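Section 5: illustrative case.
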């Protein structure tokens, strides 16, 4: 019995040794990241890339920078683009993006949204993908504004209905009070006519 128990323990401990995992080798040391990595630049520093209707990374970055500059210099861009009598396609696209700004009136943005949807098909794929973000954002904004406008109208109608019903309720309460007084007067006159007899 003892021998069986010893053999059983030995075999179980042997199984445990087989299931042990080998130590994981430490990964090779990665080069430390410096504060400033040398990333490839598409254009030389200090050179501003002109906006165009092309797909190259420098132009796409210029469009992103233009869109970002609209946040700070919207009035300046509006003034410079409104002075153009016969704008080229790039300036037309600049105007459209400028007019998609949320501060622009709803109907103007809706009209410009449709113009941009037509023009986006003629743009190179990379630029079209970039500009489609503006198109999508503006579409969501227009939908939200429409929903808010509809809810505001509905709330105003409900408010008017509530006021009308409250007024009707007051009028009915006055009529009920008047009828209660008439009933009380009739009961009094009946009681007086009967000299207090039931």
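Designed sequence:
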């Amino acid at each position: 019995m003892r021998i069986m128990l010893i053999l059983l323990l030995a075999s179980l401990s042997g199984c445990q040794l087989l299931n042990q995992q080998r130590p994981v080798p430490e990964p090779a040391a990665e080069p430390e990241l410096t504060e400033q990595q040398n990333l490839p630049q598409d254009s030389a520093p200090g050179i501003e890339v002109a906006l165009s209707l092309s797909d190259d990374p420098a132009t796409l970055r210029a469009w992103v920078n233009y869109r970002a500059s609209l946040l700070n210099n919207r009035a300046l861009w509006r003034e410079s683009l409104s002075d153009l009598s016969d704008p080229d396609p790039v300036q037309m696209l600049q105007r459209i993006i400028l007019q998609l700004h949320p501060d622009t009136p709803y109907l103007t943005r809706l009209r410009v949204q449709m113009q941009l949807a037509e023009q986006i098909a003629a743009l190179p794929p990379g630029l079209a993908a970039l500009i489609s973000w503006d198109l999508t954002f503006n579409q969501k904004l227009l939908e939200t504004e429409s929903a808010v406008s509809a809810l505001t109208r509905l709330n105003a109608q409900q408010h008017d209905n509530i006021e009308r019903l409250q007024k009707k309720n007051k009028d009915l309460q006055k009529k009920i009070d008047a009828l209660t007084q008439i009933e009380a007067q009739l009961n009094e006159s009946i009681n007086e006519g009967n000299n207090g007899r039931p």
